[in-house]
Amino acid sequence: MTTIAELPPGFADKVLSAQSTFRSVMDAMARPGSVQRIVPTAGTSHTMMRGTAAIALTLFDHDTPLWLDARMSESSDVAKWLKFHTGAPVIQDSSIASFALISDGASLPALERFALGTSEYPDRSTTLILQVESLESGRSFELRGPGIDGVATLQASIRPFDLFDRLRVNETLFPRGIDMVLVADDAVVAIPRTTRVVNKGS
Amino acid sequence: MNAPAYNFAYLDEQTKRMIRRAILKAIAIPGYQVPFASREMPMPYGWGTGGVQVTAAILGPQDVLKVIDQGSDDTTNAISIRKFFAKTAGVATTTATEDATVIQTRHRIPETALHENQVLVYQVPIPEPLRFLEPRETETRRMHALAEYGLMHVKLYEDIARFGHIATAYAYPVKVNARYVMDPSPTPKFDNPKMDNCPALQLFGAGREKRIYAIPPYTKVVSLDFEDHPFEPYRFNAPCALCAAENSYLDEIVTDDKGGRMFVCSDTDYCEGRQAAGHHGSLSAAPYKEKAGSHG
Questions:
Q1: Which pairing describes strands A196-200 and A134-144: parallel, antiparallel, or unpaired?
Q2: In angstroms, what CA-CA distances link B150 with A7, B71, B155, B157, B158?
Q3: Which among B61, B145, B180 has CB closest to A119?
Q4: Which of A40, B41, B163, B283 has the smallest CB count inside 10 Å?
Q5: Which residues does B12 contact at the CB level (< 8 Å), separation at least 6?
């Protein structure tokens, strides 16, 4: 049985690490497709990447219901670590989650199962944090939208392979929609609901 | 110098997390006003409590902060907010627009073009552009949901019917990313074109009204108008009396009780930069000398 003493640590400096992590995530969200680095590290298990752990410590608390995918919730270390360090309630109903952590992208549920916000309150939507294989190599995607000067090119190995096809619901739903944060180790790329894929290379 | 009794940048960490989440949603939905649990700040409403909370949530030790009040770095509001963050966050401060990484502003956008490594934080008194047309929050929220902005066009039309032109001179409504009509805060409409396709991230904080909204970089921002009455930025038809600038936004300063007046740049950093570069206006001699003298 894991006791709290055996849990991996959180940030060494809670205040400045959270600030630095937030600025990386904010820059990622403001400039979709750009790869931002997360410098501060916290202890993690192998299921949760260090970028994901830093984002969790920066944005999660008792006000943010959290949904974990099967691989994340199977790992009791992850749930305990999140509960101890963030206090965020882990819930089963993904449609009321503020954040969703997805470790196994291949089994990403249909996006409609998450909170999409309402027309009056489109901000009341789930932010998906998806761990991917790489944000440096793989297929290239050309992105357009607010935050992008013309076209941004993202090279990434992402599962599910049809992620950007699925995200096309954002076009018809807007201003409702799903905002995604992709994490590969310490690299972060955000795909807010306004971003459109114009061209998918190989 | 850090005041040890306070957390870094004054706000507690739970508050910062809440504000940071609101900022992320605001960026994801350009022009949409995200409600947030605005805190009481050690300054009265109307003094920039919304902007201060946004700045406190994003500021880090590496940042260089500039604060302007109607373009000026040296008015009471600007100085007290700059000192507030110098004291509670220990950040470096500057008056030079190009050196700043975070610029908090009340009612102006700097004349110097902003760049990608900057965040512009606006202090907003009334974030809802439709509020004076429809006082009920439930109704304005539905109007935004349906993108029902006819009332705003009627208001601009009534300007034309009454004055012959669109007489709205500040807080001139804009449409962001072809979706949300947004109040740019009471900036002069002269500044509206600077919001369009701006390389810097623009964040807006309204403390009393408890709203945060944003314009991501490189986002289309269009001032509302009509085909036969296109949007026109307004500027006094005069050069700056101190630096002779022909393209900056001017303040009118009454100099005597006989109708005398002078026009000077509202952006003090821009004006001082031009004077230092050798540009002199019709009245620049005395103030320029005085400034040179005070530096010994």
A1: antiparallel
A2: 57, 33, 9, 10, 12
A3: B145
A4: B163
A5: none
